[in-house]
Design brief:
The structure is a single chain. By secondary structure, this protein is of the alpha+beta class. It has a single domain, classed as Peptide deformylase (Peptide Deformylase), CATH 3.90.45. It contains 4 helices and 8 strands; from the N terminus they run H-E-E-E-E-E-E-E-H-H-E-H. The protein has a 5-stranded antiparallel β-sheet with strand order 1-2-3-6-7. It has a 3-stranded antiparallel β-sheet with strand order 4-5-8. Strand 2 and strand 3 form a beta hairpin. The mean pLDDT is about 95.
Length: about 160
């Protein structure tokens, strides 16, 4: 397994739609493993293949340590309600914004064995699932943000975290 380079928002790859995977090959399995290593190294809660320069519909999400959702050809099949929370992105370091997302989503995807499964999430899991699937469509959280935080607002939030 290897740590991959995360591309930044100035790379046009992030704005392109990804192709479906279809058949799960050893290369896709290696990509999943490398993406997990990369996500852990950079302390993220999700990562999509376009963020490492691969335009395939592959993403991973881990909002609870040890529970990793490997999403191959994911599709949102249901969503409910709305939530507005702060989001960031490994491809947009030091940028944060308040983004409106569904409060609850259900995603259908294939796992590494090729089996179709569904995951339903609320709160952070719902946001992370939507965020990573957006990457597969060439969409960044900043496209959906209702407010991009200023450097002063980010500093104030960090100060609050230190005081708690």
């Amino acid at each position: 397994m290897a740590t991959l380079k995360i591309i930044s928002d100035d790379d046009p790859t992030l704005r392109k739609a990804s192709r479906e995977v279809g058949e799960i090959t050893p290369r896709i399995l290696r990509l999943l493993d490398d993406m997990i290593d990369t996500m852990h190294k950079y302390d993220g809660c999700g990562l999509a293949a376009p963020q490492v320069g691969v335009l395939r519909r592959v993403a991973i999400v881990e909002v609870e340590p040890g529970t990793i959702y490997e999403l191959i050809d994911p599709v949102i099949v249901a969503e409910e309600g709305t939530q507005e929370e702060i989001e960031g992105c490994l491809s947009l370091p030091e940028r944060w914004g308040i983004t409106r997302r569904p409060a609850k989503v259900t995603v259908r995807a294939k796992n590494r064995d090729g089996d179709t499964y569904e995951v339903t999430g609320t709160g952070l899991l719902a946001r992370a699932l939507c965020h990573e699937i957006d990457h597969l469509d060439g969409v960044l959280f900043t496209d959906k943000a209702i407010h991009i935080l200023t450097k002063d607002e980010i500093a104030a939030l960090r100060d609050e975290d230190v005081e708690e």
